[in-house]
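Bumping with the actual sequence this time:
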Amino acid sequence: MSATTIVRIPIFPFNMVNAHLIKTDEGCILVDAGTPGSQRKFERVLRQNNLSFDDIKLIIVTHAHTDHAGGAARLRELSGAPIMAHEDDAGYYSRKEPMTFCPTGPVGKLFFKTPLPHESYEGFVPDIMMRNGDIVDLRDFGAEGVVRHTGGHTPGSIAVELSSQDALVGDLVASGILIGGIAFNGHAIRPPFEDDPQKVSRELQRLVESGAKRFYMGHGGPLGASEVLRHAQSLSRILPHSCASGQCDHARPLC
């Protein structure tokens, strides 16, 4: 198997929203699809890496929020690559169910009042629909690694675990001030929304224990394993809370 390179695709400035390209000698895999209408940003990064849409073998969508799934249908049209996602977010992808949000604190509550989380996107049905317990091997798509269901952020959140010790985790963790915006990108924080911090904690600790060294995320980053582990251990101390239809019993804030 050829060497693997992770390339960030900036959707918004200052690392506030990222997608990623897993680049190998055998082609490439997109992880997340950005907001609706962001295909030119993908095209620019592909060209910078001597690639085109035709080189994309797979589009992995980590979860159904519009900044990760919004461009998926259009990117599939441009590349012909299949979309992989998890069935627990399928109703959101198809736009048959309204997206729910569980804010993690004041930033999340403020962000919820802005248009971005609620931006509509073209619905789609994933070509490769993961189900609970599925582990998808990426060797058929030119990369050495697997995709697993994590949940935690949304019911159908998934993450990519590569043999290169890189993990692409969507919104299981974020970093920096204003989610990757202006400073402290090396400091892990909760994303604006999170369904189940205890589940996120368990999944992040599992990833570190399984050997992941570098964590790439949708907001900020990348982060090293020690900082992710610190964050995961902090999450484990949060009181359980419920999240349904956007209404939450909020956990106490992290220190």
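The tokens above came from a reply further down the thread. The first helix runs from residue 39 to 48.
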